[in-house]
Design the sequence.
């Protein structure tokens, strides 16, 4: 099975309103409720691709129960979230029907105690032993040490299980130094890590800092991969309009599934690029449109190759 | 006991953000979670005044359980909410720390089935038999007939229990025709009911439509009462700045407690006015500031009297 870790899970709510006006009162015409957090989104995409996936991280309070109840309903996903006493956060995406814009409100994560963090590490050790690959995804809730991902990467490496890291800021900086097999920063995370806004230079630098391979997700500019086997750039056939929420999580799911299936890098990048584009085009944030995915796989451009490494 | 009815209960969330910008992403710095809906707010104020109060209406889903769990923690309030299969709505008040403004997002209420409405009426009949007074408060969720309050008013009158109605629109129009003992419209509700924006004319008209007494809450202009015993106007000593959310519910609590204690109208209006002002001044929407309440009771102005009826 594939293991995804989401320390800062969320109950994601999407609200539709006619037009968002600060200081106004709004009737929400539609509410969509989903279990969220990056690793949970990755697991949902993996399950849709036919990979059995286990979700771990923290869940607490009434909102945590809602996340766990909703996970029960996703075929192919197993819930292995660890209990915390504080409540799982909510995130609210307010979609303005007039402009199409989305306004995001993110609650703070639940404070995690030292004892809870300890209990998580124990559960994680058991789960890693049964995993073919591990993905560490998203932000850290308060109370979890900033070096948490470095600790979890070392444990996975000690168990001989490949590990992917998708986070930002100081947790990314410390995590990269612990030598993960793959990191997937976006342009902002890459610039913050390396100080460079030039994608190739920054991606090479991120690799030098300890990651075995780096796949940078550059939004409409596609993916830039720097790996021991070579360098590639992958782009979708056209700039797609839609909601980019969750596109990065679909890239992670594409890379993980390709790794488990031992696909060559070229094919992993085609899959990840097509999945990201199909997520941008889906009507609900974080889902992917299966038809768009099937259509785009034949039309993704990958340049570069094994000689460029 | 006092019985308050909230057919459209809510889980009320208050979010603090630095500055609300449409299309932006916001970290919520503080989340306050409370059981809500007008009758629930009324019950909380009544309990704080020392009156045993029972709350009925509907509760469903995870949010309904959160409302019921939170009610357990309020001394003096008994939960008699009736289960529905759909989930209780959330309301979100986003407080902008820079401007002090509040932006409101209200989810739609849960669809109520004919069978659930029937089960509620049966439970209501039993509760009314044990009540000294009933208050019917707020909007109707989808599926509840627009004449619902008229039906509930007739049942209370048949049981010889005085009944107060606090709602707007068509449910108010139909409810007034069923001859409640008291209605408490605000200026907008009164204008919509009567077509008149002149408060005294509109209040007299509302009484002619069937209400035994009308107390109009006119915001900073205070209360205007037209009753069989006389007419009064009550005003707080000064225009208070603060959050007016819940001030109307505090007026209802003041009027209900005064009725149960058989206070003369003058004293009921003093209490209701001071409570409303103390609610505007409280740091959390819908709570009241006890010291402001105690101070203001001596300083509320009431004009009019029994001769003017």
Sequence:
């Amino acid at each position: 099975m594939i293991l995804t870790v989401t320390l800062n899970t969320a109950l994601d709510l999407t609200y539709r309103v006619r037009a968002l006006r600060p200081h106004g009162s709004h009737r929400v015409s539609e509410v969509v409720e989903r279990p969220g957090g990056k690793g949970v989104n990755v697991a949902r995409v993996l399950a849709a691709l036919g990979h059995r996936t286990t979700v771990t991280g923290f869940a607490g309070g009434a909102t945590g129960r809602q996340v766990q109840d909703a996970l029960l309903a996703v075929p192919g996903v197993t819930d292995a979230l660890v209990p915390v006493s504080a409540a799982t956060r909510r995130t609210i995406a307010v979609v303005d029907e007039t402009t199409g814009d989305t306004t995001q409100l993110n609650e703070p994560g639940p404070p995690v105690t030292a004892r809870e963090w300890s209990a998580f590490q124990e559960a994680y050790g058991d789960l890693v032993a049964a995993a073919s690959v591990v993905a560490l995804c998203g932000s850290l809730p308060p109370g979890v040490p900033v070096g948490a991902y470095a600790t979890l990467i070392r444990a996975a490496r000690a168990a001989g299980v490949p590990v992917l890291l998708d986070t930002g800021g100081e947790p990314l900086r410390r995590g990269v130094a612990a030598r993960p097999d793959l990191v997937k920063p976006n342009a902002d995370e890459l610039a913050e890590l390396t100080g460079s806004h030039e994608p190739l230079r920054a991606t090479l630098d991120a690799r030098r800092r300890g990651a075995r391979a780096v796949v940078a997700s550059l939004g409409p500019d596609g993916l830039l991969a720097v790996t021991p086997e070579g360098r590639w750039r992958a782009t979708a056939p056209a700039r797609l309009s839609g909601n980019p929420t969750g596109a990065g999580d679909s890239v992670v799911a594409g890379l993980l599934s390709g790794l488990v299936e031992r696909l060559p890098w070229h094919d992993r990048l085609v899959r990840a690029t097509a999945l990201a584009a199909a997520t941008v085009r889906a009507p609900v944030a974080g889902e992917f449109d299966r038809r768009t995915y099937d259509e785009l796989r034949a039309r993704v451009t990958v340049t570069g190759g094994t000689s460029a490494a």
Q: What stands out?
A: The first helix of chain A runs from residue 38 to 48. Chain A has a mean pLDDT of 94. Chain A touches chain B at residues 13, 15, 17, 20-29, 31, 62-63, 65-66, 69, 92, 94, 96, 99, 101-108 (CB under 8 Å). Chain A is about 35% helix and 25% strand.
